[in-house]
Amino acid sequence: MRHKDFIEIHDYTAAEVLEIFALAAEMKAKPKKFRDALEGQTLAMIFEKSSTRTRVSFEAGMFQLGGHALFLSARDIQLGRGEPIYDTAKVLARYVDGIMARTFAHKTVTDLAEYASVPVINGLTDLSHPCQAMTDYFTAWEKFGGELKGRKLAYVGDGNNMAHSLMFGAPKVGMDIAVATPAGYGPDPGVIAQAQSDAQDAGTKLILTHSIEEAVEGADVVETDVWASMGQEDEAEKRRRDFEGWMIDARFMGLARKEAVFMHCLPAHRGEEVSADVIDGAQSVIYDEAENRLHIQKAILHALMKK
Ligand code: CP
Ligand code: NVA
Predict the structure, then answer these.
(1) CATH no. of 9-128+293-305
(2) Do the domains 132-289 and 9-128+293-305 match in fold?
(3) Whether 265 is catalytic
């Protein structure tokens, strides 16, 4: 697999995505086999935003692969005081073997990738969250016996970074995706155009709707996310009003296939985007999903950094 960075699932072929799934499954089954894979290597992790899962799973993952991870809060490094990304990227690449970054502007990550000679991984931006979407499809791939072709994922809620990455991922795994959003909260037009053309090439469907019922009808995976993402705290009140009625509850789950699973990237707000009985119920796979961040990211680190 010849890639320097992991910025969007869209940049990877269907075969490459499946290769990462297979490696993640092997790492999950036989973690010890890979304990020296990245021996002596360091991953710098730049965070402009909070994180539990991304920070801990990347740090634990690097350790399990024989390497080391360095947590860099953007507030504490000179980047936060205005040092150019150009210099930050060039300098970090002299010390470390890879960079993972969680940023507000998507361009910060693409600039890091452009200027750093070492691999750069997108750990969430305002535009996308590809590590999470890869994990979600991997979790579905495990649940449905390693075959996703013809299945359907319903994403219900804000047309945000999660919606975008799930839209990029669906054609790669052969799944149809329905994205239901309230009016005015649809996905980014550029992402829609790209995902539409990827779906056409793959022979899968991208359905955009304002109807939760239409999206969840016959779905194998039902997924939602917070109404206000990191950086949108000021809009939280308005969004709570605009998203009234947009909670995934047992009635909506009842429209999906009987064996359907519920996913959420977490953190979640019970009683807002999802009811407690659904997220804590029998169809919910949220903790397997969270665990799989570790395995998928170890596979991505291995694919990009193994010498
Ligand atoms: N899902 C996810 O990325 O979680 P964190 O914000 O805790 O990293
Ligand atoms: N859409 C959410 C995802 C958090 C993992 C956010 O950006 O805050």
Answers:
(1) 3.40.50.1370
(2) yes
(3) yes
Atom of ligand 2 nearest to the CA of 228: 8
pLDDT tens for each residue of 250-286:
999 999 999 999 999 999 999 999 999 999 999 999 9
- Residues whose beta carbon lies within 6 Å of some atom of ligand 2: 124, 129, 160-162, 225-226, 229-230, 265
b/e code 207-238 from CB counts within 10 Å (16+ = b): ebeeebeebbeebbbbbbbbbbbbeeeeeeee
54 Cα: distance to centroid of ligand 1 (angstroms): 5
Separation of alpha carbons 223 and 211, rounded Å: 14
Q: Catalytic residue at 257?
A: no
What residue ranges do the domains of the chain occupy?
Answer: 9-128+293-305, 132-289
Amino acid at 162: M
Which residue is associated with the tokens 């991922």? 169
**Tally of CB atoms within 10 A around 240:** 13
Q: What is the pLDDT of the chain when averaged over all its residues?
A: 98
Residue with the smallest CA separation from ligand 1 atom 6 is: 51
Task: Say if pTM beats, i.e. exceeds, 0.90.
Answer: yes
CATH T-level fold of 132-289 = Rossmann fold (3.40.50)
Atom of ligand 1 nearest to the CA of 102: 8
Position in ligand 1 atom list of the atom nearest CA 290:
1
**pLDDT score for 187:** 98
Is 251 an annotated catalytic residue? no
The answer to whether residue 293 is catalytic is: yes
Q: pLDDT by residue (tens digit) across 128-168?
A: 999 999 999 999 999 999 999 999 999 999 999 999 999 99
Nearest partner of 12 among 23, 21, 3, 25, judged by Cα: 3
Closest CA to 7 of 300, 294, 276, 307: 300
Pick the catalytic residue: 97, 136, 176, 225?
225
